[in-house]
Amino acid sequence: MKLFTNIEIRELATSLSLKDRIMVLGSCFADNIGEKLANAGFNVCINPFGTLYNPASIASAVARLECGESFTEEDCVMMGAGADLVCSFSHHTKFARKTESEFLKDANAALREASDFWKDCTKVIVTFGTARVWKHDGKVVSNCLKRPASEFTGEILSMEEIEACLDGMEKPDKEYIFTVSPIRHLSDGAHANTVSKATLLLALDKWLENHGHSYFPAYEIMMDELRDYRFYAEDLCHPNHTAIELIWEKFQKAATLDSEATAIRKNEKDSIRNSHKKILQK
Known about the structure:
- Helices cover 43% and strands 15% of the residues.
- By secondary structure, the chain is of the alpha/beta class.
C-alpha cells in the first residue's frame, strides 16, 4: 500500500563541494538551507541583506553585490509602528539600528564582506518566496519596514519580469541552484499564494530551459510528499524542524558530492556537539 507521493530527485547538474564558496540568497527557506550547509562545513555567505522574498529584490541584491556601492544617508528610512529605528528598503529589519550612522556602519560592513565573497564565489543558491512585490514611490522594496500600508502599492510580477530578473542575476563565472520556497504566503489569501507560486514556477521552468543551471523541488516535496500538517510549524505556513530535515536530506543527496559524504557527516556531528557545549556553558 502506498501512503504518500514520493518525489524522485535526480542528481543536480550543479554540484556543491566543500571547496566551493557558496552565496545563499532569498526567503526564509534560504536561511534554513544556508544554516544546514554551514553546519555541514560548507563555506557560505547567507543573505547579507537579510531575508529577501521576491525576484526583483534578489536581483537588486545581486547587482549591489556585483558593484559594491555603499549605502548612504539617502537609503536610510525610519521604520514605522513606533519602532524608532533606522533601516533601508533594501534590508530586512534585523539590520535596523537606533541611528543612521549605526545603520550605515553595520550595513556597509556587511556589504563589503559579502561583496568580496561574491566576487570569488562559484555557486549561488537562490530561493524565491513570492512573485508579489510592494513598491514605494514606484520602486520595489525588500521590506515595508512596518510603515503605513497606504505608502505602498502591490502587484504580481509577470513571467517576463521574473525572467528579466533572472537574466540580471546570471553571471558567467557562477553556477546556480534555484528553488521555490515551500513557505505559504497567505496574507492576501490562499488563491493569491497559489497564483504567486505558479508564476514563479512557470517563469523558472521557461528560463531554465535555455540556461545551464539547476532547480531543486523544495516546494514540490513540501506540497506532495510532506502534505500533512504535522510537517508544518504552529503558524501552518512554515515547514517545521522535521520537514526542514527531510528536505535537507534530499537536497544533500542531490547537490553534494558522494566523495565528501563522510566529511559532511563528521562536520554535522561536530556542529551538534559544539552547539551542546555552548548550551551547557550558559
